[in-house]
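Render this sequence as a predicted structure.
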Amino acid sequence: MKVAALKKPGGLDNIETVDRDTPEAGPGEILVKVANSSLNYHDYVVAQGGIPTEDDRILMSDGAGEVVAVGEGASGFKTGDHVVSLFFPNWEDGNGFDYRRAGVPGDHADGFAAEYVAAPARAFTRAPKGYSDAEAATLPCAALTAWRGLMVAGSCKPGDIVLVQGSGGVSIFALQFAKAAGATVIATSSSGEKLDRLKDLGADHLINYKETPDWGKAALQWTGGRGVDHVVEIGGPGTLTQSIYACRSGAHIALIGVLTGVSGEVPTALFFSKNLVMTGITVGSKTDQQAMIEAIEANDIKPVIDSHFPLDKLADAFRHQEAQKHFGKIVVDIPG
């Protein structure tokens, strides 16, 4: 089978498409014919060598495809079922303790940039009904991160006001989940064209943060001084101050990304005076993913796919991601 593997020390020029033996489904495992994967920022950092991994690691955390064999003792699936992977295959439910967050595909273990993957049945959930494999492959990291940050940790409800940042996969899924929950959404971007597309997806108010550097204060003003109930925080230290300004007293910030760096100054006096709650979000559990899939089906939510790249052009897909011109998810098509 064909796989896309990373040579040490990493870097996009060190991604190679090579042949590997096709695996078999062992005890408790299923063999999945992978149709698609999708890019996440985590995958990009691994590919660039920012998260060290073993030499010749098969990349990509997310995958979707068809079950073609069921190993002895494996339960929950049969041949012909369409499944989607779990970012944390050992996190069934409850708190995300470190030991439950081990085994991430494409990082701690070989991933889904492969024609076939054999893994424990517990490492998958069913795909949403009516979804293509390409659509299902967008869910394990980006969608579940948005779901847990907004719906599980934040308990978003009708009438709430949600602020989302940018137009990457997590932010667009957060917008879609918020609208399905009956919330009002404020969306930010530096691109007028992307803001127009966010409006088409249901965003109620748009802020160009390049034109309005104090976008958090602008969001607060738009709410009449009330403030937002939830922030899906993608940027990290470079955007957190404005997010805090945007919040109402007692609001929830789901800290998801560190696109502007891993440390920085925080207006702590403003944070505690507003009695804010901030939760660090690292994707979610299998139970969270199953609940998300039910919500997706109930609300007929479809992912926004920016573009498709073949497996042997995975490095080019990462370059497209790096250029930050994409809107939504970038999908990898696996041959076979």
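Summary. DSSP finds ten helices and 16 strands in the chain. The chain has a mean pLDDT of 96.
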